[in-house]
Amino acid sequence: MKTSYPKENIKILLLEGISHTAVEVFERAGYTNIESIPKALPEDELIARLADGVHLLGIRSKTQLTQKVLEAANNLWAVGCFCIGTNQVDLAAAGQRAIAVFNSPYSNTRSVAELVIGEAIMLLRRIPEKDKAAHQTQWLKDAKGCYELRGKTMGIVGYGHIGSQVSVLAEAIGMKVWYYDIVPKLPMGNAIAVDSLEELLENADVLSLHVPADATTKNMINQATIGQMKRGSVLLNLSRGSVVDIDALQNALTSGYLAGAGIDVFPDEPEGKNDPFVSALQGLTNVILTPHIGGSTLEAQENIGRDAAFKMLSYMDKGVTVGSHTIPELSLPTHPAARRILHIHHNKPGILSAINTVISKQNLNIVGQYLNTNAAIGYVVLDIEGIEGEIDLHELRNIPHTMRVRLLY
Predict the structure, then answer these.
(1) Is 210 a catalytic residue?
(2) Fewer CB in a 10 Å sphere around the end CB: N or C, the chain?
(3) Which residues of the chain have pLDDT under 50?
């Protein structure tokens, strides 16, 4: 679809080595002004780039979009976080500048779930210890302390997209699955929901964490909760680094209370590959340490590239905001014969009435009108027909509390 703003003039900047599948999505839709950079940019350089007229920005987890950075982004319409979270973006500041922010929370679900199962097998078979010994000429051929996953209980904390996928894989290889979530969730297969975290901790042979980083989950696994875990069990954290008290975990591992742990995320992580990584868990033979790679597979990155780019593209070409964390969500039909106007404003009484008054004064016919709001922002999409020539957007822009008006097509 031909947009009112020429696609070849829309400047797209992709940082941190985003998968080329994103570029392909944009190019197939007619966008050609695309620059892809394999790393994050220092704040001053990022500000200079955004001030130079970038309309669409793609980032991963290392780029920090602070209020200061966003204030320089005078032409920025949308940000795509090509990763699970949006913690690296000041969402309030982006919303106040009418910048749509999208991410791809589910595209790496399978990659994370597979790594959970793989690490569970490695730890129950004591592979890290035997691998290190073999590299040091020792031949630890024995079955002591080594177990199959089959028949064991997988305990899952957080039964969302990743937790439920772990549930499916664990059951497929013969495990019993119990899970706990603060929000009631229907089970997959024969999984069993339990009423409390304590009940889960007491019964899980393998405990896998899949929770967000917030005040309720900070150090969820600590000295007290580890003490509630089954002696000889295994802990896996591929969620957020703030969820586990690393010192308490170290004590439980060195004392032998826990049989092993697989940790992919940490409270403090290096900024880049050349920065040193330090953890109290280093050197323990019953621990698998990985550098935040739960979703780092080629398949996951390709899926994320497609998903986040498609969301940005749907907004640019159609005004669709499904998946946005800042602009209220609207899923829109197409009206090829009509002209589409987007109006983003502060959520104040009377805005819709003022918009309709302006449209009526111009003697325009509305064939479709769509509205959604959140606590701070309102989003109205107008489909108008019977227009010849240009539409005067001046009056719409002058409505009090207007943030952005755009003629889409």
Answers:
(1) no
(2) N
(3) none
